[in-house]
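Researcher: Structure for this, please.
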Amino acid sequence: MDNNKFRRCKLALAVCVVTGSASVQSANEERSIEGGRLEETVVTASRTEQRIFDSSASLSVINEEDLARSTAPSLAELMRDLPGVQVTDSGQPGLGRVRIRGEESRRTAILINSQEVTDHYEVGTPLTLHPAMIERIEVIRGSGAVLYGSRALSGVVNFMTRKGGTEPVQVTLSGGYDSATEGYDNFASVYGNLNGFEYRVAWSKSDHEERSTPAGEMENTAFDNESLYLYAGRAFGDHRFEYTYEDFESSSDVFVEEEVKHTYPLTDFYLETPKRDRDKHGLFYTWDADGTWLKSLSANAYHQESDRHFYTYSELVWYQRDINNYSDLETDGALLQLDLQPLAGHSLIAGLQYLNDEVDQTRHVDTLSWTPTIAQTGVEIISDKANIETWAWFAQDQWDISESLSLTAGLRQYFVEGELDDTNRESLTPGNLDDDDELIGALGLVWSLNDSIRLRANYSEGYVYPSLAQLATGAYAGSSFVNPDPELEPETSDNFELGMRLQNGGFMLDATVFYTESDDYIHHLPCEPEDGCPGRRDRYYTNIGESKAHGVELYMAYASSWANLEPYTSLTWTKRRLDYAEFSTWDSGIPDFSGRAGLRWQGTIMSVPNLWSDIYLRGESSSQLSEPGTVRDVLEDKDDWVTVNLETGIDFGSRQQYQFALNLFNMTDKEYIASTENLYGPERSVAVKLTLNW
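Model: Predicted structure, C-alpha cell format:
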C-alpha cells in the first residue's frame, strides 16, 4: 500500500473509532424490530404479496435502507452475508455471481422484476445491473422451480428496480470511492410523478483499477461498466401499465494464477472479457379486478439481448493462438397470471409462461505455429446457432386450514424443445435436440404457534434443463473443446426444510434446517479413444453424478433498549457430498462454516441525530475441492479466515435526504481467498459514498 493510501486509511479509521466509541454515550432511544425484517412484505416467495413471517419458504431480503448504506460496487457483494449464499467471481472482477446452498451459480434463477435473465455458460448468470438501480432484493433459498422454472434448482434471486416518485420532479445524485481498487462509482437519476404518470431516468458508471490485496496488487483485475435505466408507469382506474428499459455495458479483465500461466505446455496465458453487455425492454400490465373469484390478472413480456466477447491468448511451446469468442443471446419471455379465490380460505394463483433463448456464436481462432506437425498456422472460423423453447403452466394454492395452520401446494408442467439450427463443425449435425416434458411439485406448511412464533416445513422439487452449450453447441475450456450431448438428462433435486421464525419484542430469530438430494449432474470429462471425439485433447458433457447436502442457516438479532445496541449474527453450516460413478468426496469447495457477526448502533451523539455504525466479523472455515477426471487429487485448498470490518454513516438534512456512508474493510489486513472465489480479498481499505436527494 502506498503512503497516500495508508494515510487515507488511517484517517478513515480514526473517524470510525471516534464514531464507534461515542455510540455508547448515545441517548437511550428505545429501538425495536417489531415491524422489522420478518414483517416485510415480499412477492417472490408466492408471486403474491406475503409477509416473510407467514411464508413457508426460506427467505432473505435486502431493503432500500440496506442499499442506501452500502458502498458495494456490484450486486453480488450486496448478498455476500446472507445465510446460505456465497459469491463466486470466476476470476472476473465486477461480474460476480451467487451460489446458494453450495450449488453452482448456473443452478440459481436470476430475475429482474420477476423476469428471468438467462445465460448458457458454465459459470452461471452474471449480475449485469448496477446496485444504484435497485430498490430491493428478495432471495429464496431452496428450489423455486414450481413458480420460476428451470435454473431455480437451488434458489431464486429477484432484483426489484426503482420506479417513479411522489413529486413532479425529484433528483438523486451519488458518488463513491474504493481505495482497494482506486475505483469510482457514480449515479444520477431524475424521477417523479406528473398527474399520475410515474417516470424515472437513471444513469451509472463504475471504473475500478487492479485490486490491491495483502498479497500485493493483482494483475488483470480491473473492470468498468456503464448503465442506463428508464421507467414509465400509469394507472387507468383498475388497470396499470408499466415499461422498463435496461442497458448495461461492461468490460473486465480475467485473473489467471501464475502457476496456470506457466504450466507445461503453456508458457503464457491471458484472458479478457472486453464485452459483457445486456439490453432489455420489459412491459407489465396489472388488472386489480377484486371480483368474487378473480382478484387480479397480471401479464408481462420482454425482449432481452446479451452480447459477449471473450478473448483468449495462449502461448505454448509449439505455437501461439489468439481466440475471440463472440456470442449473442436473444431471449423472449411472456407470462400470464391469475390470482383467484375460488373458495373461502383458499388463495390460488395460476399461470402460463413462455421463454425462448436463441444463441448465435462465432469463434475466430488465429494460430501461429512453429511446429506444423502439432498445429497448423492459419485462421479458423467456427459458427453455431441454436435455440431452446419452453412452455410451462403452473398453479399454487394457499389454504388456510385453520387460524393457526396453512398449507401451500404447487405444481408446474414443463414442455421443452431445443434445436441446433446451424453449425459448420463436422462433428455436429443440425437438427432437433431431445425434448422434455416434466411435472414437478412443491408443498409447504406453516403453523402459527402464537403471535410470535411460526414453525414451517417445506418440500420442493428442482429441475434444470441442460443449456444450449451442453446440448447443442459445446463449449471451450482453454484450447480444448467440450463436445455437446443432445441426449443429456435434466438435473433434478429434492429439497426438504424445517424452519422456525420468532419475533418477540426486540428479539428476532429465523432458523432453517435443510437437506437436499440432487441427481443427474452435468459435468465434462476427458475424452477416451472409444468416445470418438474429434480432438485428442477434447472433453465431453455427460450426466455424471449426484450430491447430497445438509445444513443449518441462521439469522438472529436482538435490538436492545440499552444504548441502542443491536447484536446480530448470520451463520451457515453446510456439509455437501459429491457422488460420481467411481468417485465420492466431501470436498465440494464449500466451507463447513461461514457467516457474519456484529454489533449495530443507531442514534444521536452530542445533539447530532441519525448516526449509525456497524462493527462486524466476516469469515469462513477452510475448504477443499476435488473432482473426477483431473490430474490433481485436490483442485483447491483454501485456509480459514476472519476479517474485521466497520461501517458507519449519517443521514442528514431537514428530511434526512442526504446520506454519507464510510466503510472500512479488512482492518487487520488479513490475506485470504474466499472459498468460491479465485481473487484474493482486498487489503485494508476504505470505501465511501455520498448520496444527495432533492
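Researcher: Any notable elements?
Model: The radius of gyration is 25 Å. DSSP finds six helices and 39 strands in the chain.
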